[in-house]
Amino acid sequence: MTQKIVIAGSGFAGTWAALSAARAVSLAGRERDVEILVVSPTPHLHIRPRLYETAFEEMAPDLAPLFAAVGVRHLAGVVDAVHTERHEVDVTGADGRRSTLPYERFVLATGSRLFLPDVPGLAEHSFNVDQLASAMTLDAHLRSLAERPETAARNTVVVAGGGFTGIETVTEMPRRLRDILGPGAKIRVVVVEQAPVIGPDLGPVPRPVIESALAECGVEVRTSAGVVAIDTDGVTLSSGERIATHTVVWTAGARAHPLAAQIEGEHDRYGRVHADPQLRARSVPDVFVTGDVALAATDDEGHHAAMSCQHALSLGRVAGHNAAAELVGLPTHPYSQPKYVTCLDLGPWGALFTEGWDRQIKLTREVGKATKQTINTQWIYPPQADREAAFAIANPDHVIVP
């Protein structure tokens, strides 16, 4: 009887889990015995790390030829429910039909979603760059500003959230606004961060460089303040300040996909499932968690994988390999990713490349920007539809980050 590996999600972790599982099955010569099925709305990999940019035509590569080349099947739909006690998942297909799929191993790779707290007006009056559709909606809105009468609110953008995504988004905004409104427009761009400092999770070492870059790009910074209300004409901050704007971009944090809550066991404050070294859900041995839904140790020093494509690539390869390895009799592979880098795009200023969890600065400005562009346009993209080439980099030991 054919055994089934069901993978929920075709983001970075899901895609690489599928490729790595297919590689393991091929190594064992068990292609006829094990089916690998990816369930996601479409067979595309949305390049979320680039959604602060505007080259949308490059941000959803088609995975169908690659999946076909390695023997992975795709089902257009979403996993609605996981029944771990009977090894089944409920699926709603793209055509609206509901079905139940059995599995021998299940890989949860549904990623994360933007955290949307109960802020008055947030749902009605804000934009975001969390998903491709929402990034395109923001872009259309920005372009429509040129048709409105010139006011301070029209010419002002407020980005709520001064973390990694917020910084990359806000440093691009002055240039985007000038391209739309004209070089002579009197624009204003503000980033708002609740913490006392900008980029609180990025640490103290790169902060002076980030602050300098924001100033050079013409971005105003508000720290120790949060957005408490949004309406059609502006935002109100917790400090009492009122900023007139027609454009509020929300980037304040992420949470694991809600499906993660259906996996038994302990979860962290972001909703991630605690994973063992093989990326099994600790309380459910036949379920693997990977990418943004997994709380996984990267080393023996207390560090855990971040919600980032850098970690998702390796997490996916390890989870997929192990899910298949358990079925075909290959050794499993513990997850480890001790080398950590960040590459923060800072708009016209350039980019900042750091190494280590203490984020020691290695590259800045134009050299950093060139590295960022290589990461964004080459390293994080899936391989071509070449079975051997795909398997060569689907090894759970493979490392892309320099």
CATH class of the largest domain: Alpha Beta
Strand line-up across the major sheet: 5-4-3-2-1-6-18-17
The CATH homology group name of the largest domain: FAD/NAD(P)-binding domain
Shape: globular
Radius of gyration: 22 Å
How many domains is the backbone divided into? 2
Percent in helix:
25-40%
In the CATH hierarchy, the architecture of the largest domain is 3-Layer(bba) Sandwich
The fraction of residues assigned to DSSP E strands is 25-35%
Number of strands: 22
How many helices?
Answer: 9
CATH topology of the largest domain: FAD/NAD(P)-binding domain
Distance from N terminus to C terminus (CA atoms, Å) equals 43 Å
Family: Belongs to the NADH dehydrogenase family.
Pfam family, one: Pyr_redox_2
Organism: Methylibium petroleiphilum (strain ATCC BAA-1232 / LMG 22953 / PM1)
Cofactor: FAD
